Amino acid sequence: MSLKFDLRPSAAPRSDAEREAILADPGFGTHFTDHMAVATWTAQDGWGDSAVVPYGPFQVDPATAVLHYAQEIFEGMKAYRHADGSVWLFRPFKNAERFNASARRMALPELAEESFVESIEALVEADESWVPAGGETSLYLRPFMFASEAFLGVRSAQRVQYCVIASPAGSYFSGGVRPVSIWLSREYTRAAPGGTGAAKCGGNYAASLVAQAEAARHGCSQVLFTDAVERRWVDELGGMNVYFVTDRDELVTPELGTILEGVTRDAIIALAPELGLTPVERRVSLQEILDGLRSGAVREIFACGTAAVITPIGELKDVEGTYQVGDGQAGQITSRLRQALLDLQYGRTPDTHGWMHRIR
Ligand code: COI
């Protein structure tokens, strides 16, 4: 049975003027709406206590398991406002499916896909006025789940908190849609076979931060990891998937296994043939990419994810030097793909894939 998320309205929502000021320049991940969706799970009773409640802090016991053993997962998705004022989600059941795959890997309880989508719908309906309009703005949605039991033994929690928060968003990168520089991590890896690389769990992102800081010291906004065994095969970036455009109009991306199964990554595979491109999922060695940049066999590189959308990569860097991608500007194919995806998400082209999910 699907959970219901009835609204318990906030007694102190932000004023229209405050909200409008935030929506005029939302940034990424710093402002939150007036409500959040919640539900709890116990080993004894399963899921319950579901509602949309005023946004606010959790009271957390110092012994809460997630603080010690990081049993936690999350998702990232967006609500888009179309030109006629309607509000839509992009493939929400894909996120629901991935949330449950992450839950299984992290020994957390699954949440029925209908309940997951219902929680998102209920929150977006409650805070609909927070969905920005215009440009590439959206309402970023962050469903997450964590071990909330106060217990220090190492085992899967008997009590779990589910929550969805919402945050009006502009561009993920502070420079807007400009080609970014990527640091090639030689020292650190993010995922090993049999590990948690394919799960969307906080620990993967925590493990990327020291490499991300190294990237920042070298003027780069993201880090690219290679595999943990041979240090040879391209894995993914700190917080997004990666694609390479070849001179044969192929869109090459690392095969699934230790990487996150990105919803945007998957959409690009489906959209590619419509743009005359051939999607290829396979192992890609970093050496092949560096050689390809020199010879011209690799023409463009881009990052993709819900937050990043499709972001051109202008250069790769490591201790030995800088490898420019094409002329360092956004490539033609990257730009066409980006436009095709955004046109779909913002309702400017027909949704031939049945990906858009109307909320109101
Ligand atoms: C997303 O693209 O939604 C992500 O989760 C990436 C990052 C912000 C963690």
UniProtKB/TrEMBL annotation:
Swiss-Prot/TrEMBL cofactor(s): pyridoxal 5'-phosphate
Keywords from the UniProt entry: Amino-acid biosynthesis, Aminotransferase, Branched-chain amino acid biosynthesis, Pyridoxal phosphate, Transferase
InterPro entries for this protein: Aminotrans_IV, Aminotrans_IV_CS, Aminotransferase-like, B_amino_transII, BCAT-like_C, BCAT-like_N, BCAT_family
Annotated catalysed reactions: L-valine + 2-oxoglutarate = 3-methyl-2-oxobutanoate + L-glutamate; L-leucine + 2-oxoglutarate = 4-methyl-2-oxopentanoate + L-glutamate; L-isoleucine + 2-oxoglutarate = (S)-3-methyl-2-oxopentanoate + L-glutamate
Pathway it works in: Amino-acid biosynthesis; L-leucine biosynthesis; L-leucine from 3-methyl-2-oxobutanoate: step 4/4; Amino-acid biosynthesis; L-valine biosynthesis; L-valine from pyruvate: step 4/4; Amino-acid biosynthesis; L-isoleucine biosynthesis; L-isoleucine from 2-oxobutanoate: step 4/4
Modification N6-(pyridoxal phosphate)lysine, positions: K200
E.C. no: 2.6.1.42
Coiled coil (UniProt feature): none
Gene Ontology biological process terms in this record: isoleucine biosynthetic process; L-leucine biosynthetic process; L-valine biosynthetic process
UniProt-listed SUPFAM superfamilies: D-aminoacid aminotransferase-like PLP-dependent enzymes
The keyword Transferase is annotated on this UniProt entry: yes
CDD domains reported in the protein's UniProt record: BCAT_beta_family
Enzyme kind, highest EC tier: transferase
GO molecular function: L-isoleucine-2-oxoglutarate transaminase activity; L-leucine-2-oxoglutarate transaminase activity; L-valine-2-oxoglutarate transaminase activity
A Pfam short name: Aminotran_4
Family stated for the protein in its record: Belongs to the class-IV pyridoxal-phosphate-dependent aminotransferase family.
Protein name: Branched-chain-amino-acid aminotransferase
Organism of provenance: Auraticoccus cholistanensis
Organismal lineage: Bacteria, Bacillati, Actinomycetota, Actinomycetes, Propionibacteriales
